[in-house]
Amino acid sequence: MPTQAELDRKFLDAAYEEAQQGLREGGIPIGSVLVRNGEIIGRGHNRRVQKGDPILHGEMDAIQNAGRQRTYKDVTCYTTLSPCMMCTGTIIQFGVARVVVAESKNFKGFQDVMTLAGVDVVDYHEPRCEHMMADFIEKHPELWNEDIGE
User: Fold this and answer.
1) Which SS3 state, helix, strand or coil, does residue 120 take?
2) N or C: which end of the chain has fewer CB within 10 A?
3) Quaternary arrangement and interactors, per the entry (predicted)?
């Protein structure tokens, strides 16, 4: 039986693949998957550029793609970058129990807010995601600043 850390790595890999897909599409490389009982129920990536939708961040796309759920209290959100305030609010609003973050070096996000709201937050500080975002931010600062509202 896999450990929690092994499961986290597996689903962070899926989120990373979503981020890579976003990058291939010409968008911002942030990916996310929602998991219940070891199964992905929703996956997505930041599609703000591709869809011209200002709120279609990776976590929002994954939640939207999961469709209506009776509850999120037994769901873990895996994301390649620490969630922004909008995604944090959505996570809290729907009662997502756990958030696993690949990296928060390039964007600290609002992990403290989620923790205060009772969300279990784990941050793995993954170098591959740190490098992917740093490279993107260096090459596309205007797009990144638009994404985070600056």
Assistant:
1) strand
2) N
3) Homodimer.
Phi-psi sector, 69: left (phi>0), alpha (psi -120 to 50), beta: beta
- pLDDT surpassing 80 at residue 63: yes
* Catalytic (active site) residue 17: no
Q: Which of 17, 39, 59, 103 is catalytic?
A: 59
The answer to whether the pTM exceeds 0.90 is yes
| Angle at which helices 58-66 and 85-94 cross, to 10° | 30
> Rounded to whole angstroms, what are the CA distances from 52 to 2, 47, 48, 77, 82?
40, 8, 5, 24, 22
Give the residue from 25, 18, 87 showing the smallest Cα distance to 56: 87
Asked if pLDDT for residue 147 goes beyond 80, the answer is no
Residue 144 is predicted with a pLDDT of 86
Q: Tally DSSP H helices, then E strands, for the chain.
A: 7, 5
For the chain, the farthest-separated pair of C-alpha atoms sits apart, in whole angstroms, at 45
Residue 100: closest CA among 29, 15, 27: 15
- Judging by DSSP bridges, how do beta strands 75-79 and 98-101 pair with one another? parallel
The radius of gyration computed from the CA coordinates of the chain, to the nearest angstrom, equals: 14
